[in-house]
Amino acid sequence: MVPLAKHRLSTGPARVRVLIADDHELIRVGLGRLVSAQSDLTVVGTAADGHEAVAMAMSEHPDVVIMDLSMPRLDGVAATREITRVAPETRVLVLSSYVQQLMIASAIAAGACGYLFKNVSSLEVIDAIRRAYDGESVFSVDPRTATI
Amino acid sequence: MSQNEAVRSDTEADLRVVVVDDHATFTSLLALGLRSEDGLACVGTSTSIAEGMRLVDEVRPDVVVMDVELGDGDGLDATAELVRRDPGLRVVVLTARTDTALMQRAADAGACCLLPKNGSLIEVLHALRTSRQGELAVHPALLKQLITRPSQPGRPEVALTERERQVLRGLSDGLDVRKIARELHLSPHTCRGHVRSVLTKLGARSQLEAVAIGHRYGLIGEKD
Fold it and tell me: Does residue A88 contact residue A110 with C-beta atoms inside 8 Å?
């Protein structure tokens, strides 16, 4: 588990900075609007592939990244590995349609702090962002009982 | 997600829309997007075909937005059944990729529009407002997939053997090499050789990337 940086523990008015990486525009835009509508969250960027996600993470220093796994150019696992290497204080929360153990294990090994299957509603994603920011490991699927 | 989460009060003039897609995140975001649009009313969402069929019977929408591959069945089969029950119903189908066979099936099913699933909300809204029953409109991005598929820039020259395809399918199902070897009656050593070969041919640096590329180019089956 990646330790939380000190600034995360402050209770000031700063909003949680969120980066959304997904090759589906509707997810990026829709989730972006929903996140922006929350008084405690703000979207600092969106990315349509893994390379963009890594670049945005390095330039915008998000607190939480919502990461799709199946993306062009650089997949979500590789992007997660790179982001948690260069910005260990950033929490990466995977949002994927893959429910297989191999995928979940790969994401966790790459440094993801949680894994949401895409059967969760958008409001559950919002809740998960807050929980990830608070240092929780967030899973909508149990890695032990996922498809082998 | 229950239909009530997405329902807003609609007026007589609103185009009434039901969304059927097993990706609840996608479904709820699309419902939210529709909710803020003038002249459109999302009157329900469903993450399964079975529930979606019941929902359409119950709320009688003008348009259904339908995913192709759902957990409990095929969206194009469901489209055919919905149009058979109500010939005036319009069905806009969302798909991650297409080929001529899928396009033909969509036309035969009575869908009125084929859209790329990674497209924008604006494109979905345009299709909802303009598509007509009795004709199939196909988004240019999907047509481009057909035209450019053989020489698409960046696409690996994929020439997987049948055995390599079986191994890739096993990886996609989340199986490890030993399990794939057992299923295919191969030694683990031989199976690892096939995995290495798949990775090399697809230009993948990991098994996950190989699976992602396989899905992207239709070597395995649809996955978003």
Answer: no
| pLDDT tens-digit series, residues B27-47 | 989 998 888 888 999 999 999
- pLDDT tens for A121-145 read 888 999 999 999 999 888 886 655 5
CB atoms within 10 A of CB B166: 16
**Residues of B with Cβ-Cβ distance to A125 under 8 angstroms:** 25
Taking the model in full, what pTM does it have? Answer: 0.67
Q: How far is B30 from chain A (nearest CA, A)?
A: 7
Q: Is the Cβ of B203 closer than 8 Å to some Cβ of chain A?
A: no
Chain A CB contacts of B121 under 8 Å are 25-26, 29-30
Facing B25 at nearest CB: one of A71, A106, A118: A118
Nearest CA in chain B to A31: B29
ipTM of the complex: 0.71
